[in-house]
Amino acid sequence: MKDKLARFSLTLVDQRSAKPIVLPYKDAPGYWFGGGNMVEDAEGTLYLVGRYRNAGDSRTGLSRGERGLELAIFRSVDGGESFHKILSFSKQDLDLPGKRVISIEGASLCLREGKVELYVSTEKDGIGYPEGFKEYQKKGTGVWSIDRISASAVERLQEGRIESFFSSADPARLHVKDPTVVRLPSGREILLFCTHPFTWASSNSAYMIREPGNKEFGVPVYDFLPRGPAWDVAVTRATDILTLPEGTGGLREAVSLLFYDGAECLRPHEQSPGGVQRPRGYSCEEIGGLAWFPGESIQQVERISQYGPLFLSPFGTGSSRYVHTLKGRGGLYATWQQSSPTGSQPLLMHRLSWDAVNTLLS
Questions:
Q1: Percentage of residues in the chain with pLDDT exceeding 70?
Q2: Regarding the domain with residue range 2-361, which homologous superfamily does it belong to in the CATH classification?
Q3: What would you measure as the largest C-alpha separation in the chain, in angstroms?
Q4: Helix-strand-coil percent breakdown of the chain, rounded to 5?
Q5: pLDDT for 314-354, tens place per residue?
Q6: Pseudo-torsion of CA 294, 299, 304, 309, nearest 10°?
Q7: Helix segments in the chain, DSSP class H
Q8: Cα(51)–Cα(103) distance, rounded to whole angstroms?
Q9: pLDDT tens sequence across 30-82
Q10: How far apart are CA 183 and CA 185, in angstroms?
Q11: How far is CA 180 from CA 7, 107, 173, 207, 210, in A?
Q12: pLDDT of residue 151
């Protein structure tokens, strides 16, 4: 079954057949668009959220580049054939009182009955590190946290009030970012997010659950997907869950796929010319992995990509990250950031018809 799920996922996240749908502002290393998700409303309109990132270095604050400078929402009324920007949020637009946004990171749209929620993570000045760890904070840098904006429609999100949703003062999980809301078949919602310690020495996964009918999510669950034993020992960042119901193709039970970004290093390392040349992944150039669990039992998650990555760009650094999926009217969609020959990372999309999904899994 693991082999079948891996083959299916490689066909869905097809690195060569996918098409770019949003290009970064510059075709050069350090520039990308992505880190968000795509949703579909009752009329079949697709909405896509992500952030534009320009070159920079998070270790030095804003002294080396603009970094995450704009959150944008796109709309498609033709099933994903074309996307048009309808909303744009600058760093200043996302400021909170006394907390200036230094950089915009991952975001997620969530459509609920009569309401839309936008979760966005930003690095903010004015928070500071906890006592005993203040000397670890570099000049010009801040702390990552997650905020939420609610509105009656996607188009009205700029009228909504931004509120603090989740932050941490625990040095082991000081920085929290990259929220992703996934609705499971039971109606429960999982909010995946990633955490970093005060030293930024790793990237780890966590989640919260919102039960049907509840307004708020429950307490965070950490370390449900520990960092891996080999290629993903430095980074294991969950980005999406795709549940395939019982009866899809040849599946005898419901199965959930968990996509994640992994890396062996936090910075690029020169490889020995006498050794095996292999993709290692590093911060901002992560590569893709896959795990699975039965039904909605996320605590039983098990890696499929145990000893090597599953998703690699054939271009540039090999980076392929931030996979998100959508079960839409037009089929099963996947979007992700992919390294290009020039080193930039446009957002790509690939779609499978539901007939193709059933064939691949049968």
A1: 97
A2: Glycosyl hydrolase domain; family 43 (2.115.10.20)
A3: 60
A4: 10, 45, 45
A5: 999 999 999 999 999 999 999 999 999 999 999 999 999 99
A6: 140
A7: 2-12, 354-361
A8: 10
A9: 999 999 999 999 999 999 999 999 986 655 544 455 778 999 999 999 999 99
A10: 7
A11: 24, 7, 18, 9, 13
A12: 97
Please state whether 186 falls in left (phi above 0), alpha (psi between -120 and 50) or beta: alpha
Q: Give the CA dihedral 312, 342, 123, 237, nearest 10 degrees.
A: 0
Let me know: does 353 contact 333? Beta carbons within 8 Å. no
Rounded to 10 degrees, the C-alpha dihedral 189/356/249/110 comes to 10
- With the CA atoms of 105, 47, 342 and 278 taken in that order, what torsion angle do they form, in degrees rounded to the nearest 10? 70
Q: Residue length, the chain? A: 362
CA 39 and chain centroid, separation:
14
Distances (CA, A) of 290 to 14, 170, 242, 319, 320: 14, 28, 11, 15, 12
Question: According to the model, what pLDDT value does residue 62 have?
Answer: 47
CB atoms within 10 A of CB 218: 12
CA distances from 247 to 64, 150, 240, 290, 295 (A): 52, 36, 22, 21, 12
Q: How far is CA 136 from CA 128, 147, 182, in A?
A: 10, 24, 34
What pLDDT is recorded for position 139? Answer: 85
Rounded to whole angstroms, the Cα distance separating 202 from 209 reads 24
User: What amino acid is encoded at 256 in this protein?
Assistant: S
Are the beta carbons of 202 and 235 closer than 8 angstroms?
A: yes
